[in-house]
Amino acid sequence: MLAKLINYDRGMNMRNLTVDKFLEELSSKAPVPGGGGASAMVGAAGCSLGSMVGNLTLGKKKYADVEEDIKVLIDKSEKLKEELLVLINEDAKAFEPLSKAYGLPKETPEEIAYKEKIMEEALYAASIVPLDIMRKIYEMIVLHEEYKNKGSRLAISDVAVGVIFCKSALLGASMNVFINTKSMKNRETAEKLNSEADKLIADGSKLADEIFNEIAASFRINQ
Predict the structure, then answer these.
(1) How much is the pLDDT for 8?
(2) Is 20 exposed, middle or buried (0-12, 13-18, 19+ CB in 10 A)?
(3) What pTM value is reported for the model?
(4) What residue ranges of the chain have pLDDT lower than 70?
């Protein structure tokens, strides 16, 4: 664990790793990248699939009337992808103070009070990043609905893949919120974070399922 954190401190940029290297780091016993970073990466893949659908739609006469809308969708998707890639690193950074806080001494009342203070700050920071990942992914789920309605029918299956990636990433990131809020002493703050995460899960999952199921149903005959 310590070796991995030292490597990260020296400037290891998760987003610049090859796919093989990222998966190698992910499968190791080291703490980062973990579930939060993996969720952000899966969400970024969902964004990329949306952009692909958009790019396959541009320039087609059949979709000329929505071309400007598609260009806007691609710009938004690429922005969200970039933000999610940044959040892979932010998730790793947020874990470091928390890992150090767990190791603080707690022999005296002063040490106990100090550790509780630092732990509370670290737990909050470690909850905010995955919550931000969830927010970005929810935005992408909404964009997938537009891709479903306006994108090329030849790439409609990729909308379904992209949106189910996003749903998985949304649920995955939520686990990193809940595991940290569970340990927070300030229950009012914890419940506020949990409430937002719960709403993102409910709204995002519902919309993602609707998009996926509509597309899946369109491939079936004689239903």
Answers:
(1) 43
(2) exposed
(3) 0.88
(4) 1-12, 221-223
